[in-house]
């Protein structure tokens, strides 16, 4: 796990004292979610034409926010792996790019 170390004892904006806290940095971001979903699609776990889980279900699966999942899905749409249909959900593209 990566850890962010607080560098300065004073907040430069407000001048308030800050404690020197170690703060964990989440390592599961939208890129990792996108890569994992792409791997699952290419392996056939989610075959062409199959509906993907909802944003909420994916967020729960990866223990991330819905916003993180939305950003991951944008990457997959740009790659041509996923098609979103307004009000109907997310689907694996019928023809996957090579």
Task: Give structural notes.
By secondary structure, the protein is α+β, with helices and mostly antiparallel strands. It is 36% helix and 16% strand. It has 3 helices and 4 strands; from the N terminus they run ββαααββ. The strands form 2 sheets. It has a two-stranded antiparallel sheet. A two-stranded antiparallel ribbon has the order 3-4. β3 and β4 form a beta hairpin. It is globular and about 30 Å long.
Short description:
With 98 residues, the protein is of the alpha+beta class. The chain has helices at 30-43, 55-62, 66-78, and strands at residues 2-5, 22-25, 82-85, 89-92.
Q: State the end-to-end distance.
A: 34 Å
Q: Report the mean per-residue pLDDT as an integer.
A: 80
How many runs of DSSP E, i.e. beta strands? 4
Radius of gyration, rounded?
19 Å
Helix content: 25-40%
- Unreliable stretches covering 5 or more consecutive residues: 1-8, 15-20
Order of neighbouring strands in the sheet with most strands? 1-2
Count of individual helical segments: 3
Q: Which word captures the global form? A: globular
The fraction of residues assigned to DSSP E strands is 15-25%
Most strands sheet:
2 strands, antiparallel
Structure class:
alpha+beta
User: What series of H and E elements makes up the topology?
Assistant: EEHHHEE
């Amino acid at each position: 796990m990566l850890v962010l170390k607080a560098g300065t004892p004073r907040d430069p904006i407000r001048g308030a004292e800050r404690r020197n806290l170690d703060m964990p940095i989440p390592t599961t971001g939208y890129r990792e979610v996108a890569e994992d979903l792409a791997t699952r699609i290419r392996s056939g776990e989610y075959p062409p034409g199959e509906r993907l889980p909802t944003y909420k279900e994916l967020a729960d699966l990866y223990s991330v926010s819905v916003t993180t999942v939305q950003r991951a899905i944008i990457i997959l749409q740009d790659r041509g792996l996923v098609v979103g249909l307004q009000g109907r959900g997310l689907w694996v593209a019928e023809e996957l790019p090579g």
